[in-house]
Amino acid sequence: MSATASDSIMETGTFVNCFLLVISLVIIPVNGGYDKERDALLKGTFPQDFIWSSATAAYQIEGAWNVSDKGPSVWDTLAHQGRVYNQDTGDVACDSYHKYPEDVALMKQMGLKYYRFSISWPRIFPTGEQQDGVNQDGVDYYNRLIDELIVNDIQPMVTLFHWDLPQVLQDRYGGFLNNHTNTTVIHDLFGDYARFLYQNYGDRVKYWITFNEPWITAWLGYGIGNFAPQHNEPAEGQYKAAHNIILSHAKAYHIYDDEFRAAQGGQVGITLNCDWGTPKTPADADAALRYVQFFLGWFAHPIYKNGDYPEVMKTTMARKAQEEGRTTSRLPEFTPEQKLSISGTGDFFGLNHYTTVEVTDACCTPIENPNYDTDKDVGTGHAPDWPRAASSWLYVVPWGIRNLLGFIKEEYGDPEIYVTENGRSDHDQDPAIMMDMERICYYMMYTNEVMKASNMDNVKVKAYTAWSLLDNFEWLSGYSERFGLHYVDFNDPTRTRYPKASSVFFKQLVRNNGYPEGSEFTKYVENMWYFCHNTTEAEVNGYTGGASQISSLFSLFLAIPMMIAYSLIA
Ligand code: PNW
């Protein structure tokens, strides 16, 4: 896209978005969702050493799917079978394999001091196995990226596995389904891969995340099978895969501990995702807890608590085995040695969180074709006044993250928590959403709830990471859902990046380290607060003669100059 064309996208986009916003301010219906106390803006700052970061993942941004000797991953396979919306693939994606210096420049511009990205296993070992050969160009690529970050004073946080399993490992060993009852080859292969990364990059990388969201790999990849590697076995596949992933994680943790920690002094954890489950009625309280235990506890309980699955998961699955006439539970068991080696294998607790569900108790009708969803004996829904993002599953419920952080503190012995993803999607639409007020609101409201967890509830939240630095390949939705702080034009062969208004907002947030009393930024946020909560000050505090609408509108006039100023610099 030429400079002129891009300018006109920005201008039309800005204008149309602002116009729509003004219209929507006038017609937004009264919304009973706002709770004056729960949802009030907290002023103050995060602790001094708080980590602000943004994240991406290899398959979602790198492209260069077959350069040099890179092997195919299970996501290359799935995409090439045309299984993604609009037949999109990650073949080129954001082309970060070539454009990484631009990505780093965007972070620098935002004042970010940390970057969470993932390494593609088949870019390092084309078959997944070191003995079959190393792709030196791939190794060099990550060296260049890491060096570029360090030169720009940005600390790398590296995810070892963000879903792009080497296809050969799936074909040879069944991937994470590989013989789950004993020590299996997949644990060793993951360990070898981890060791190689520590050896090559550990002098500069001090934060390692073994797996990103094993819940997704297990359930969507090996249970339902709509995600790669498309294994459909919803009664048991997810339990076997999760079992192997937990053991592989423990292996990689101990390798760091035994062979590298003393010399390199870094930290190793895992990133788990969880939607907060809030009970629909007081009678659903146990069901909501069960929901969270089956979701987060499935992985967090073994790793951060005692080496074993949550009690409620074991008893529920044992009862189901009886009902189903099975001699053993579909939930596998760890041996005593395995429990010992799993327990305590996280130096920090990585958390990805996006949304909340309302949980109802659905206990206990025996089910003909059981699966992970029915195993929980719960129903899930959403309150009618929860706003929605572009992704079908993403409802905006800011207070959910505070509850979840509090749960983690209580349940897992007050660990240091790194929020490794949080963010909101827009639709891919024309004109592009550059004035992304909904995303600004999302980050404003969610980070304020994180600050409440930190400063009011004494949760040890150490980091907040925005998903995502860039619009990118959103898995089965392809390029139709945009999570970026920066817009990427996927029709432009050069994949030009453009800052959205949210990147300006996020930069201010980082610079202010929260919402300090009296700062211009906090004033802006105060003006936006009711608008972001889809309500007006008058509805919350009583009739104020329309001042609230004016203050919401006023905040738009602050936002627009910010946007224009930034687009001139960029
Ligand atoms: C996470 N769901 O994935 C991932 O870590 C990212 O790669 C991804 O782009 C981001 O969240 C946004 O989706 C999820 O269907 C994928 O509930 C799907 C779901 C949740 C998280």
Commentary on this structure:
The protein is of the alpha/beta class and 570 residues long. It has a single domain, classed as TIM Barrel. It is 46% helix and 13% strand. The protein contains 20 helices and 17 strands. Strands 2-3-4-5-6-8-11-13 form an eight-stranded parallel barrel, surrounded by six helices. The chain has a three-stranded mixed beta sheet with strand order 7-9-10. A hairpin with an 8-residue loop joins strand 15 and strand 16. Helix 16 packs parallel to helix 17 and helix 16 packs across helix 18. The longest helix is centred in the middle third of the chain and has 28 residues. It is globular and about 65 Å long. 4-nitrophenyl beta-D-glucopyranoside binds next to loops. GO terms for molecular function: hydrolase activity, hydrolyzing O-glycosyl compounds. It is an enzyme of class 3 (hydrolase). Belongs to the glycosyl hydrolase 1 family. Keywords: Glycoprotein, Glycosidase, Hydrolase, Membrane, Transmembrane, Transmembrane helix. This is beta-glucosidase.
Observed structural traits:
alpha/beta, 46% helix, transmembrane, TIM Barrel, binds 4-nitrophenyl beta-D-glucopyranoside, 20 helices, 13% strand, globular
